[in-house]
């Protein structure tokens, strides 16, 4: 029963991506719209990171989780390898929780 929705979503994703490739040469966007779309993608990503790192359910997640996200963000910004970013972020949050920082 679950296979049908998965196939429908897979076909929809493929059609959406294929349509983008096929229409790339036919559709032109003004430069200000391209800049707006680029900015909106960044804003959406920042909002996602903020809500997932600061809130756990209806309450504040504590200081360990945002600190781990901050460490991971700084390492990613400094172009550290992905494994190092994830390990350092997880270790930071775990050590802070072990130290009693909620």
TrEMBL record:
It comes from the Bacteria. The keyword Membrane applies. Keywords: Membrane, Transmembrane, Transmembrane helix. The chain crosses the membrane at residues 6-24, 36-54, 60-77, 82-100. The keyword Plastid does not apply. InterPro entries: Brnchd-chn_aa_trnsp_AzlD. It holds the Pfam family AzlD. This is Branched-chain amino acid transport protein (AzlD). It comes from Actinokineospora alba.
């Amino acid at each position: 029963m679950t296979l049908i929705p998965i196939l429908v979503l897979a076909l929809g994703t493929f059609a959406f991506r294929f349509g983008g490739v096929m229409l790339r040469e036919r559709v032109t966007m003004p430069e200000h719209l391209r800049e707006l779309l680029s900015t909106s993608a960044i804003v959406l990503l920042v909002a996602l990171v903020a809500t997932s790192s600061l809130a756990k359910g209806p309450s504040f997640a504590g200081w360990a989780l945002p600190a781990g996200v901050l460490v991971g963000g700084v390492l990613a910004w400094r172009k550290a390898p992905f494994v190092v970013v994830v390990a350092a972020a997880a270790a930071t949050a775990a050590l802070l929780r072990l130290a009693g920082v909620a």
